[in-house]
Design goal:
The chain has about 400 residues and is α/β, with parallel strands linked by helices. The chain has helices at about 25-40, 55-60, 65-75, 95-115, 145-155, 170-175, 225-245, 270-285, 305-320, 330-340, 370-380, and strands at about 5-10, 45-50, 120-125, 160-165, 185-190, 215-220, 250, 290-295. Keywords: Acetoin catabolism.
Length: about 400
């Protein structure tokens, strides 16, 4: 059982809403929290509230004129295309600043709880908006909450923070904000930028001068499933975290790597995703003295994927994993029918065997996933004194 675990939630977090038909529908986090509550997962956590991030907190990574531009859009609802607001991905809406600042405030609340020792782990499933840049909204993201939290940790005296991003899309905003900072190790496992937004995240992106090897990118081929994804994860993430020895582990848990996700092309199951959550939990204890901040991220299959995946994440953080065979509660299935007129899944599993073979058991140069693994290891491992060969 983990020590105190803080789950950050405020019903106002669903106000981060780009409108009808937008993929990032806030009902996905509403259904996640309802499922976690109905299964009793939240009984093992301390519930924590949040307040919006202040301008000074946002300015840890964002330009002041950008924050003012978001506020202007927030007041008028009029687009500001120069700052990426008013596009199909990031529609302008009245209240956008307040909504995005609250999401960031929730991740900051998680960071404070962990850094101050009030909780060992903290989770904000509404967070994970990893594409926002210093002066531009991008990819459904207005303010970059994980980057703000990492910058806040550094401002409090943290000397080494590791960020692991398992979203199907490259964690480009977080990487960009710390590309020249050797105190921050960013690791992103994502679908190849050759086939998916944002078009970055090649293994050759390894960090700026003075921070070489602190940006790590595993660009996986479209069609990669549980076995290949988990093989790649274990071939890259554990050795680098062990070598870097972070004081805090921050993870972005986008679940759009699932086979049913409408916006991407990886083929993971909920079972593979929960296996990754368990691995990250273990690595937080092994390498970061248990200090673990987990945020949500992408995930656009609103009923069959996001609520189950992130309920497994919260349960893992609490230290009481949910048996995959557990039935979903009737009360939750009724809520799904009421809110979306859809039929909810009956159990917490996709029925998959999420097993994998370690890369040390043999490298296959004809396999696209193995080639992706070795491209990353060859690009980054020597900077850390690690042998790239399996």
């Amino acid at each position: 059982m983990s020590q105190a675990v803080r789950v950050i939630w405020d019903d106002a977090l669903v106000s981060y809403d780009f409108g009808p038909g937008h993929p990032l529908a806030p009902v996905r986090v509403e259904l996640t929290m309802a499922l976690a509550r109905d299964l009793g997962v939240l009984d093992g956590a301390e519930m924590g509230g949040c307040v919006p991030a202040t301008d000074d907190e946002l300015a840890l990574v964002h330009k002041r004129d950008y924050i003012e531009a978001v506020k202007a859009v927030s007041r008028s609802g009029r687009p500001d295309l120069r700052h990426g607001l008013g596009t199909d991905d990031n529609p302008a809406f009245v209240g956008v600043h307040e909504a995005a600042a609250l999401v960031t405030g929730a991740t900051l609340a998680a960071a404070r709880a962990v850094w101050r020792g009030e909780a060992e782990h903290a989770v904000n499933v509404a967070g994970g908006l990893h594409h926002a840049m210093a002066a531009t909204a991008s990819g459904f993201c207005v303010y970059n909450d994980p980057a703000v939290a990492i910058a806040w940790l550094l401002s409090q005296g943290a000397s080494r923070v590791a960020y692991v991003d398992v979203d199907v899309h490259h964690g480009d905003g977080v990487q960009a904000m710390f590309y020249d900072d050797p105190r921050v190790l960013t690791i992103s496992l994502h679908e190849s930028p050759r086939t998916l937004f944002p078009g970055t995240g090649f293994p050759q992106e390894t960090g700026a001068e003075g921070a070489e090897g602190t940006a790590v990118n595993v660009a996986l081929p479209a069609g990669c499933g549980d076995a290949g994804w988990l093989r790649a994860f274990h071939a890259v993430v554990p050795p680098l975290l062990r070598e870097f020895a972070p004081e805090v582990l921050v993870t972005q848990q986008g679940c759009d790597s699932h086979a049913l996700d409408p916006l991407a092309n990886l083929m993971l199951s909920v079972d593979g995703q929960r296996t990754a959550y368990a691995a990250l939990h273990g690595l937080a204890h092994e390498t970061a003295s248990g200090r673990w901040i987990a945020v949500g991220g992408g995930g656009y299959e609103l009923v069959r994927v996001v609520p189950r995946a992130w309920t497994h994440l919260i349960a893992e953080a609490v230290g009481a994993p949910v048996d995959p065979r557990t039935p979903t509660p009737g009360s939750w299935r009724a809520l799904v029918e009421e809110r979306l007129e859809e039929t909810a899944p009956l159990t917490m599993t996709d029925g998959r065997d999420a097993s994998w073979r370690e890369i040390s058991e043999g490298y296959d140069p004809a396999d696209a996933t193995d080639r992706a693994i070795m491209a990353t290891r060859n690009a980054v491992f020597p900077f850390h004194g690690l042998d790239p060969m399996p």
